[in-house]
Structure formats: C-alpha cells, structure tokens
Design a protein that fits this description.
By secondary structure, chain A is mainly α. Chain A has helices spanning about 5-35, 45-55, 55-90, 90-105, 110-120, 125-150, 155-160, 165-205, 210-220, 220-250. Chain A has two domains: about 1-35; about 40-255, MetI-like fold (Orthogonal Bundle). Chain A is globular, with a radius of gyration of 23 Å. The chains are: A mainly alpha, B alpha/beta. At the A-B interface, helix 7 and helix 8 of A face helix 4 of B.
Chain lengths: ~260, ~260
Amino acid sequence: MNGRPLQRELIVSVAAPIGLVLVVLFGWQAYVWLSGIRPQTLPGPIRIVRESVESAGAIWEHSLVTMSEVAAGFAISIVCALALGLLLDMSATVRRAVYPLIVASQAVPIPVVAPLMIVWFGFGVTPKIIVIGLFTFVPIVLGFAAGLAATERPTTDLMRTFGASRWQMYRYVKIPAALPDLFTGLRIAAIYAVLGAIFGELAGATDGLGIFLEQSRLSFRTDLVFGAIFVVTIMSYALFLAVVLLERRVIPWRFQRREP
Amino acid sequence: MLEVEGVGKRYGSEERAVVALEDVSLTVADGEFAALVGPSGCGKTTLLNLIAGLDDADQGRIVVDGQTPAPEDRLMRFGYMPQQDMLFPWRTVLENVSLGLEVQGVPKREARDRAAELFPQFGLGGFEQRRPHELSGGMRQRASFLRTYLLGRPFLLLDEPFGALDAITRAQLQGWFAETWNRIGGSALLVTHDPHEAVALSDRVYVMSPRPGRITNVLEVDLPRPRTARAAETEAAHRLIDALRHETESAGVSA
C-alpha cells in the first residue's frame, strides 16, 4: 500500500468531522451568549466543559461502573451470538424455530421491560448485562449467520472432494468467509452496547453514568447532563473504533485490493 | 479405469423435470486422457459432478476399477479441479495449495513442505507467501491445479480449467499443461467447450449435445505422445479440430 493516499484519507476522515463539530459548538456558544438563555435550560459548551471538569472525579467513578457493565455485557452477548449463529447455520429446524423470535425480540420496548428485569434480577449487574444483550445480540447473530450461509455450492463441493468433515468445512471455509459479515454486525452492536448499559442503569442502579445523568437532570444540572452525554458518546465511539481496529487485524485480506 | 454406463439425471419435480443427462456412457482407460466437448449447458459439468460423487445419478452405473462405489465413496477417488480457482483470500498461496492435504489429515508442516517443493515446477516459485489476488489468472489456475495434483489421486476430473482465462493466457496455459502432463501422467477426464483444447490434450474426445445431454460421437485423437505445447498445430491435428468443431456445432443446432 502506498502512503500518500492513506495519509490524505486519514487527514480528511479526522479533520472533516472535527471541523463540523467546531462549527456547531461555535454557533451554540454564540447563541447562548446572544440570547441570554438560562443555563438550566441550555448551557453553553464553555460552561459544560468547566462544570464537567469540576465533577471529573464523580464522572470517572460512574464511567468505570458503566464500562465494566459494557465489557461484561458485550463479551457475553458476543459469545452467545456466535454460538447461536453456528446453530442457526447447522440446523434448519433451529433456524425455523428461532429466527422469528430473534426478529420479534427487536420489537420489545426495552425501556419498558428493563424495570421488570430489576424486579426479577435485582439491582446488580445481571439486568444491565441482559439489556446490553438485547441491544447487541441480534446484529451479531444476523451478521454471522448471513456470512455463514454465503458459502456457495462450488466451494463446499471442492471441500467435499478433499474429504472435509462438517467441522472442517466450518473451520477452513465457512467461518473465515463469514468474518466480514460478522464484523459488520459487531460494529453495529458496538454502537448500541453503551446505550444498553445506560438504559439498564436508568431502570434501577446505584452507580453508573445513567445514574449520574438522571441525578444531574433531577437537580437541574443541565451542564452536567451534557457532560455525561459527551462521555457516553466517547465511550461508544471508542468501542466502535476498537472493533474496527480488531477487524483490520483479524481479516487484513478484506482490505486488500481484489485485482493486482 | 472409469466406466459410465447409461447414466441419466433429472432436476426438478415430476411434471416439470428438466432432463440434464440421458443414457450417457463413456469409458476412460487407465493412463488415458479423455475429453468431453459440448456447448455450454449440455450437462458436461453435471456429468463430471456425478462421477466425482458430488451428486447422485437417477439412472445407470458409475464403475471405478470394476467396483460401483456409492457417491460418497467416490468423493475421494478422483482429483477434482473446479472451473473457478477457489483460492481463498484468507490463506496465502502456499496455504491454499496445501489445503487439500491438510484437510486429509497430513500435518500442516509436512503438507506445506510437500506443496512448496512443487512450486517451481508449476511456475509459482517465489509466490508462496503471496495472497491469491496478487497472482495473474494463469498463475491462479496453476495453483488450483497443483492443489488438486498434490492429493496424489491417479484420476483427475478437470472442469473447464482454462475456461475463465483470456485467449492468450489460455493458449499459454494449455501448452504448459500438455508438457506438464507428459511428466506427471495418470488418467483424466477434461470437460471443455473448446475443440482445440480437447485435441491438444486428449487421446479420445466425447462429443455431447444439450437438452437432454447425451453423447453423440466419439473421436480418437491419434496424435503422438509425449505432446508438445504445439501438438495441435500439425496438419493432422487441424483436421481433427475441424471435424470436432463441425460435430459440436451440429450437436448444438440439433437441440
């Protein structure tokens, strides 16, 4: 790969969104100054930063709780999704039985169900993990299952003439071929994982960014609400980037040019 | 020795069934190179897949060395080379070529050593650690052929191995293949739609007509062996190619 287009691409992909954000922040601050709007209604970016830095200790403590929930919930969700994805591909019966349920699970109004989870599982980490699972499980399963199903007849025929067992078919062909689709699902899931933790905390918790958000809102600290939202966004984005970097490591062949 | 006796194959439901093959018989003796020529859609590949054991015939028998093994027992009797190269982008060229051996249980290290040894002979020397997309079309087909050859099965089934290549690469690869065959020997059934290719490489050509696929003629190719890359440039070869072209064209028209 030659460096120049890559460097240029990198500059554009970093500079463009930062530039846009700066323009929006500037307009926002200008509006707050000119209109004299109350900070409880709409604080300006400068105040948000100042107050958030003031409360950085508390935000950090709550962030740690949320991050550990996300780590546990996302990891468990991935493991379950990979297992179910394989099962869906191996058995038509399982596929027919489970597929409608997977689709239906996405229609569940999670904010309404989350409080029930607290009733069932208490204030511990379990309900958060389940809510994160509800948010992230489906894109991973669907991506992985679609990738596994994409291996076509001529390929499996060749493997059969090698004498490949079912397991070898998965190991040598179907699973590697499914990785790009799996990572598409993982990227989508990564965006929703932190959101899942916040919803889980809002339903009932003692610590976490969701709790910090709720307490700040109830005490009219709108500046801290924005600060916490900013941290949630950064967390989601970091998780997304981690998945993208992992993808580049695991399937480098995906990013090479097709033709010489 | 391979004997195909009265093989038939249909696809689809009873009343809408498409007859892919009807009463197809052919024989390939040990050490013989046979070709199956016909227009596209005549069922050549279907027949090859039946012989390979990838599919089950509705009628007839497929006899291998005097026995009639079930399809799943035929799967590992033949060296099968598909039309597309099927080199996987997540493996290096060497890892692709040794895949068949690895699947058969040969230890990874040994499989790769055995594959690497043959890379120069197959014009792939120095490309062991490259990815398939870095190879030219002709090199990819050679890698695919090496992967099949490495399995060490004495009878090869070749499904249009040069079909996806441009004319120049194709002619070069045919010449290379003819000369390589002199060294490695064995029996083969080659499926192709190219009369020139069939004459250049084979001892006997079966002509197929489409819908339903059946054998309409057999031509003996009595060109001397070992064949050179220019074996099909002689007067005798040209007469055979012309005859064959005429055969396949009329087979195509009659459908």
